[in-house]
Write a structure and sequence with these properties.
Radius of gyration: 27 Å
Distance between the termini: 56 Å
Largest sheet: 7 strands, mixed
Helix content: 25-40%
Number of helices: 13
Shape: globular
Strand content: 15-25%
Number of strands: 19
Structural class: alpha+beta
């Protein structure tokens, strides 16, 4: 009998770890090749881990809710046939390695697990600061206590590097060191109390009265994450909105004319979304200042245009899959990408990498009948565009012979942008350019 090590697969360039949410197979269960063994979750998407071989699950090396790094062995599957020499040696070492890993995790639990749980902090830390904290073993408690020199007291790269240097030289003590020296704490209360003013606590929630007939439902994991993201975004970015009304009569007529032939030739349904996405991608090329991110006091100009596409899930939650290099796709390619990501999102088949790397987001609030909205920016991006419902409205039509009233198909575009780095001139000009591309749509074009 051979023993196969089931490892946590690579899930994208920016995904390094995942949490085990559920074991679908128990020790002793028979597993077929490509059959799902367990469910995992990253910070944005849930997925399954299938087995590469057929056999019997003989060992689970991690439990539910454990955090696993990409490439780590998570289970042992016993297969039929003789195992290669190298496989046998590795399999024999698995129990010992697992025990050593468990001891190591317990020994460094305070210094390793804490820095990675940045979601427990009410303060905003840039990706650069969090990466340095992880590399240097700086806990969330320590980060909260650092006096930031950036805007609104934010911790900058220089602040955390100075803290790390001071900690190594003994100028400052880690929380663990303070616990081990209570006398020093008692004699120097200022050193303990100093961090308190910079810890930004959220306001106390207003007590909610519960009556006998009320039902109490706990938020699921994804809803808790979404809640945290939305609050953090509002606290991070200065949201400003610009609105513009667009005449999309030509687009509606063109789609009605070609949608049947499009589906017959391409095997895909043609919705309005890819047409809108195409216009947004063009506008981002014209205004690269909207295709940026903010890292502390630095602005990062993104080379690629990766469009996030907000999608509602059957359970009411929201997810934002990303169309990579959207500016390089023609309308057919855009339609295929939109339909693929939308269908997989509804079926819960998105991969972690499908939600990573977005540089700008589009959300279609018109799907639910909304005329326009004020969407919240998807951090660390600086803008998000809401597409309103397309409606038939009376409008003034200008002609060489004079003006007259006619029925037109119109919609509102709602642009939310980060006023820290995007002023009204850029934010308004960008959404106006999107509108111009839509209104200039060629009704004689091929798809």
């Amino acid at each position: 009998m051979a023993r196969f090590e089931l490892k946590l697969p690579k899930m994208g360039e920016s995904v390094a770890e995942a949490t085990i949410t559920n074991w679908l197979k128990e020790v002793g269960d028979r597993i077929e090749a490509d059959e799902a063994v367990l469910e995992i979750a990253t910070d944005k998407v849930d997925s399954e881990v299938p087995s590469e071989v057929s056999g019997v699950l003989v060992e689970q090396l991690f439990g539910k809710d454990d955090l696993v790094q990409v490439g780590q062995t998570i289970a042992i599957i016993e297969t039929e046939g003789d195992a290669p020499a190298e496989t046998k040696v590795e399999a024999a070492a698995v129990p010992v390695a697992a025990a050593e890993i468990e001891k190591t995790i317990e020994a460094v639990k305070e210094t390793v697990s804490a820095p990675q749980d940045f979601a427990s902090s009410d303060k905003f830390f840039s990706p650069l600061v969090k990466n340095i904290a992880k590399e240097e073993g700086v806990s969330v408690a320590e980060l909260n206590g650092i006096q930031g020199s950036g805007k609104d007291g934010r911790v900058t790269k220089e602040d955390i590097l100075k803290y790390v240097e001071d900690r190594k030289s003994g100028v400052v003590q880690t929380p663990k060191a303070v616990e081990e020296t209570p006398k020093v704490v008692a004699e120097t209360p200022k050193a303990v109390q100093a961090p308190e003013p910079v810890v930004q606590k959220s306001q106390q929630a207003v007590p909610v009265s519960v009556n006998g007939g009320d039902e109490i439902i706990e938020m699921d994991r994804m809803r808790k994450l979404i809640s945290g993201y939305m609050v953090a975004s509002v606290q991070t970015s200065a949201h400003v909105q610009s609105f513009i009304e667009v005449d999309v009569t030509n687009i509606v007529k063109w789609r009605d004319k070609v949608k049947t032939a499009f589906e017959k030739r391409e095997g895909e349904k043609l919705t309005f979304t890819p047409i809108m996405m195409e216009a947004v991608a063009k506008a981002l090329k014209d205004f690269p200042g909207m295709n940026i991110s903010v890292d502390g006091d630095y602005i990062i100009k993104k080379k690629n245009i990766n469009l996030g596409m907000a999608a509602a899930l059957p359970n009411g939650n929201l997810i934002v899959p990303v169309i990579k290099n959207a500016d390089q796709l023609n309308l057919v390619g855009m339609a295929k990408a939109v339909n693929d990501l939308g269908n997989r999102a509804k079926a819960g088949k998105l991969k972690p990498d499908d939600t990573q790397g977005g540089t700008y987001t589009v959300t279609n609030v018109g799907t639910f009948g909304s005329v326009f909205g004020t969407p919240i920016i998807n951090q660390p991006q600086v803008g998000i565009l809401a597409l309103g419902a397309i409606r038939k409205v009376p409008a003034v039509i200008e002609t060489p012979e004079g003006d007259f009233i006619g029925i037109r198909q119109k919609m509102f575009l709602s642009h939310s942008y980060d006023h820290r780095v995007v002023d009204g001139a850029l934010g308004g000009s960008f959404v106006k350019r999107v509108a111009e591309y839509l209104e200039a749509f060629d009704v004689d074009r091929d798809f």
